């Protein structure tokens, strides 16, 4: 019993039972005999009054009277006698003990000589009772007397005598039994206190444990009701509260996480916006400066351009600006969800061959070898033809750009169940590991030489990533033992390839 409430319940219950037992003993010692005598006196008086009014005793039928007297004595644990006033004759049952006979004669002799008492009894017609010590019996006795009508009204006096010593004997025996009674009572009180304290304390301790866990945001504990009482009802209410709080907390966590993600997303968008503006400003600054410088020189006559070279430079820079703006618009449409793919079935092999022909001049300029030898002539995939062509153009131009002269570019197609894996590997090149995660970012360039490339806006791979995400494609760029490998997947068309 380690709990405070269990100890309190045990102590209170034990004290209550101890006080109750003590009160019983005090009552038995101090008041029981008096109470007994009082009740005995009242019952004796009432029964004697009822006996005296019995109409079956009319006349000289002593047999009926005697039988009734026997029954009265047995029921009331007393002795009964009759004094006939006319003859002063005393009548009592034959089994009356001698000491009681002497007592009756003494009482009746006293009444015979005390006319006032007899007249008082007859005039009142009621039972009179007294308790006093009898020398003949050597004990306290209860004496009740009342007038009785046998041959005519109130022609006799009825006397009932009962001793008090039986209750004293019982009290004496009970006093001897008190030590055993106290020991047993204390043992019962201790056992009852332990059982009661556990019955009440254990559920309360369990409820307190659950409430403590709930205060620490742990809602895993549940109370198991055993009975339908207030404590178990409290347990069920606590379970209901715990379940609701747990659900509310999980919902709050979910919403808080969603809010954090939204805040983080807003922060990222704001950071991207700032970087985007900074990058756009940087990318536009150079062509604008070139156009402005050459235009002012031609206007002021500082520059002479008989062959139109300066005008060609201005037009070329304007084309670069136009490409940058168009790429930004394209990326903006993809990121905002405005641009939706128009899925259709097309021959991927034919698209790759067309892209390679488009950049044949650049390939020959660097004396590159293209290794693209599919094992079949036609391979149909599902996707947006215009967007996938952009993806192929970005990967192929990057491969051509970063592949050293006289090296090789390998393009392969591989079937993966319902997907087609496209791989473009340019040999002799590599990307620093710390830059692999950044190459998809807007305006990020692996070439840090500062050399301007009219065919690159720094948005190609960002646009490529957006297009492949719209196609739910798996894609990536990684270093290999011989070079750099770019890959992506497309969903195979339901049409069958032809070998």
Structure described in brief:
This protein has 12 helices and 12 strands. By secondary structure, the protein is α+β, with helices and mostly antiparallel strands.
- One letter per element, helices H and strands E, the order comes to HHHEEHHEEEHHHEHHEEHEEHEE
- How does CATH name the architecture of one domain? 2-Layer Sandwich
Broad CATH class of one domain? Alpha Beta
Molecular shape = rod-shaped
Estimate the helix proportion, in percent: 55-70%
| Low-confidence segments | 448-452
Might you state the CATH topology name of one domain?
Heat Shock Protein 90
The number of distinct helices, counting runs of at least 4 residues, comes to: 12
Number of strands: 12
CATH superfamily of one domain: Histidine kinase-like ATPase, C-terminal domain
Proportion of strand residues: 15-25%
| Rg, alpha carbons | 61 Å
- What is the oligomer described by this structure? single chain
Biggest sheet, in brief?
Answer: 7 strands, mixed
* Ends apart, CA distance between termini: 86 Å
The whole-number mean of residue pLDDT values reads 78
Structural class: alpha+beta
Notes on the structure:
- By secondary structure, the protein is an alpha+beta fold.
- Among the domains are: 55-163, Beta-Lactamase (2-Layer Sandwich); 340-492, Heat Shock Protein 90 (2-Layer Sandwich), CATH 3.30.565.10.
- It has helices spanning 4-30, 32-52, 62-76, 98-113, 115-124, 165-215, 230-300, 309-336, 348-358, 360-365, 385-402, 460-470; strands at 79-84, 89-91, 128-134, 139-148, 156-163, 344-347, 369-371, 380-383, 408-416, 419-427, 475-479, 483-492.
- Strands 6, 7, 8, 9, 10, 11 and 12 form a seven-stranded mixed sheet that branches.
- A hairpin with a 2-residue loop joins strand 9 (408-416) and strand 10.
- The longest helix has 71 residues, at 230-300.
């Amino acid at each position: 019993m380690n709990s405070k409430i269990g100890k309190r319940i045990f102590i209170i219950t034990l004290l209550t039972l101890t006080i109750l037992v003590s009160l019983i003993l005090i009552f038995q010692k101090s008041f029981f005999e008096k109470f007994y005598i009082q009740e005995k006196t009242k019952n004796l008086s009432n029964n004697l009054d009822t006996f005296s009014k019995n109409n079956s005793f009319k006349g000289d039928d002593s047999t009926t009277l005697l039988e009734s007297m026997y029954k009265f004595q047995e029921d009331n644990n007393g002795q009964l006698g009759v004094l006939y006033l006319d003859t002063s004759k005393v009548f009592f049952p034959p089994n009356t003990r001698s000491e009681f006979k002497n007592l009756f004669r003494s009482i009746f002799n006293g009444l015979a000589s005390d006319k006032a008492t007899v007249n008082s009894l007859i005039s009142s017609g009621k039972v009179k009772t007294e308790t006093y010590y009898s020398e003949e019996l050597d004990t306290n006795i209860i004496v009740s007397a009342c007038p009785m009508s046998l041959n005519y009204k109130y022609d006799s006096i009825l006397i009932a005598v009962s001793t008090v010593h039986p209750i004293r004997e019982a009290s004496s025996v009970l006093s001897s039994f008190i030590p055993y009674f106290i020991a047993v009572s204390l043992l019962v009180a201790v056992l009852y206190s332990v059982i009661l304290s556990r019955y009440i304390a254990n559920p309360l301790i369990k409820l307190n444990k659950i409430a403590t866990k709930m205060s620490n945001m742990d809602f895993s504990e549940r109370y198991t009701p055993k009975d339908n009482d207030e404590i178990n009802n409290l347990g069920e209410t606590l379970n209901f509260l715990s379940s609701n709080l747990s659900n509310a907390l999980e919902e709050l966590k979910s919403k808080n996480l969603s809010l954090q993600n939204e805040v983080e997303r807003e922060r990222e968008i704001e950071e991207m916006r700032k970087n985007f503006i900074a990058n756009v400003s940087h990318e536009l600054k150079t062509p604008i400066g070139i156009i402005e410088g050459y235009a002012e020189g031609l206007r002021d006559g500082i520059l002479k351009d008989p062959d139109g070279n300066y005008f060609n430079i201005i037009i070329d820079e304007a084309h670069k600006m136009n490409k940058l703006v168009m790429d930004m618009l394209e990326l903006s449409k993809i990121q905002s969800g405005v641009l939706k793919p128009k899925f259709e079935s097309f021959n991927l092999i034919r698209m790759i061959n067309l892209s390679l022909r488009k950049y044949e001049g650049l390939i020959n300029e660097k004396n590159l070898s293209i290794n693209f030898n599919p094992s079949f002539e036609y391979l149909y995939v599902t996707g947006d033809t215009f967007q996938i062509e952009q993806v192929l153009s970005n990967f192929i131009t990057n491969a051509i750009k970063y592949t050293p002269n006289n090296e090789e570019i390998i393009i392969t197609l591989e079937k993966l169940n319902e997907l087609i894996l496209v791989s473009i590997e340019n040999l002799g090149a590599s990307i620093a590991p710390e830059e692999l995660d950044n190459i998809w970012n807007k305006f990020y360039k692996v070439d840090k030489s500062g050399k301007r490339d009219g065919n690159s806006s720094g948005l190609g791979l960002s646009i490529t990533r957006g297009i492949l995400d719209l196609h739910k494609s798996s894609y990536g760029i990684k270093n290999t033992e011989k070079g750099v490998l770019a890959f992506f997947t497309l969903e195979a068309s339901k049409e069958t390839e032809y070998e």
